[in-house]
Structure formats: C-alpha cells, structure tokens
Design a protein that fits this description.
The protein is built from seven helices and ten strands. It is of the alpha/beta class. It has two domains: 152 residues, SPOUT methyltransferase, trefoil knot domain (Alpha/beta knot, 3-Layer(aba) Sandwich), CATH 3.40.1280; 84 residues, Trp Operon Repressor, Chain A, CATH 1.10.1270.
Length: 251
C-alpha cells in the first residue's frame, strides 16, 4: 500500500475527488491510502488561528508555522519518506518525478498545502521537495496536491484497472525507464463513422505492425505541432528522425 499524508485546511476538497473513479477504487482495494490532517485542529488558541500578518508589512496573510509543524509531527510516517511543499517557486512536477515517487520502496509521501499569501519560510525546513505544477499561481496548494496524488496513484499496482492503459500515454516512460518525450497518439472507438468523420482505415484493418507505425508517427506529428521542445529529450530512432524531417519540410 502507498500512503499519502496531506496537510490541508480544506479536507473536504480531497474527500470528493479521492473517493471516486480511479483513486476511489485504489483506496477501496487497499492499493493506496490518503489521510488528511487539518492544521486548524492543532491550534492552541481559542480562535484556532492558522495565519497572521507578515513581518515587514505587505498585503495578505501568512500561514503560521506552529499549526503546520504540529500537524506534521502528528503523522506516523517513515522518517526518511519524502515531503512535498506545493509552491509556485518549486521545481516542475513531471511524469518522471511521478515514476520516482511511485517506484520508491518507502511507499509513502507527505504533502503540505499552502494557502493565503504564503507559508512561513520556516515550514520549508520540513520539506525535501518544493514542487510546482505550472507557471501560474493558485489560491492554495490543494489542486497541485490532488494532481500529484493522481499522477502517482495511477502508477501504483492495483489502482488502474488495466495496466496496459498506461502504455504509450503522453509523457510516459519507455521500457528502460527513460522519458519517452512524446505525446500520445489519437484514440478512436466505435462507431467507425460519426457525422462524416471516419476512423482511420489503418486502425480497422487488423494489421498490428501498420497500426504501431501509424500510432508512432501520429504521436511524433502531434508532439512536433504542439510541444516540439519535448523532442529534444526523446529517444528517437533513425526512422523517427526521418519522419520529423518530412514534417519540417512540409510545414
């Protein structure tokens, strides 16, 4: 079982999302566990204040260190397990990082969610990782935490119903663990024709070798059009490079 510990002022945000679909199934079958710790429950003052005005002045409120430390220290965790602080100044969260967390033998992760104008800098000392999910600012760290939990959980055995569905996804890893660097090829299902739009013939003819080639080339085409930067770190075959050269010549 992989254990997620989340420190958040809004447990209800996690209750709904983590009880449905893939995460709900993973929790029900014992593949993952998600526990939420509310810093407000660890306040010692009568008003249960978790924030205060910033030293030096400025707009907004800053989360106090005492409730966050108390919530963190209440968690029964492996002392060496990673701790994430969600932060717009953190390192980008990637599929490779999700794989690293999921593959860890410790099987445990703690996530601290920020709120308000920010978190007292002393709380950063608790974290082994500061992680951002994008170059933008959100109201709090709950959505990034859910994103991280979702991405990691899908890689835990028993969470996703069919493990084969993880193969060839966008940002997936190759069989040797390297980042594939390309986006996913288009997917189709029945009916074969809808409002004049046809499923490509190659997907309906049963030629698995041709299908594999089509999917690879479509994935390369979409990556070239949408995220050409990803091709710089993708392991490309000679055939892949020739196909990309053709795309460049025709663009």
């Amino acid at each position: 079982m992989f254990n997620f510990h989340v420190i958040s002022l809004f447990p209800e945000i996690f209750d709904a999302y983590c009880s449905t679909s893939v995460l709900g199934r993973g929790r029900n079958n014992g593949s993952i566990a998600i526990e939420i710790y509310n810093p407000r429950d660890f306040c010692t003052d009568r008003y249960r204040r978790v924030d205060d005005t910033p030293y030096g002045g400025g707009a907004g409120m800053v989360m106090k260190p005492e409730p966050l430390y108390a919530a963190f220290e209440s968690i029964k965790r492996n002392g060496d397990s990673p701790v994430i602080l969600t932060s717009p100044r953190g390192k980008p969260f990637t599929q490779n990082l999700a794989h690293d967390f999921a593959a860890s033998k410790i099987n445990e992760l703690t996530i601290i969610c920020g709120r308000y104008e920010g978190i007292d800098e002393r709380v950063v000392n608790l974290a082994s990782h500061e992680i951002s999910v994008g170059d933008f600012v959100l109201t709090g760290g709950e959505l990034p935490a859910l994103t991280i939990i979702d991405a990691i959980s899908r890689l835990i055995p028993g969470v996703v119903g069919q493990a084969d569905s993880l193969v060839d996804e966008s940002f997936s890893s190759t069989s040797n663990g390297l980042f594939s660097g390309i986006l996913e090829a288009p997917q189709y299902t029945k009916p074969p024709e809808f409002r004049g739009m046809l499923v490509p013939e190659v997907l309906r003819n049963g030629d698995h070798k041709a299908i594999a080639k089509w999917r690879r080339q479509e994935a390369l085409r979409i990556t070239y059009q949408q995220r050409p930067d990803l091709l710089n770190c993708a392991p490309l075959s000679k055939e892949d490079k020739l196909f990309i050269d053709q795309l460049k010549a025709n663009s």
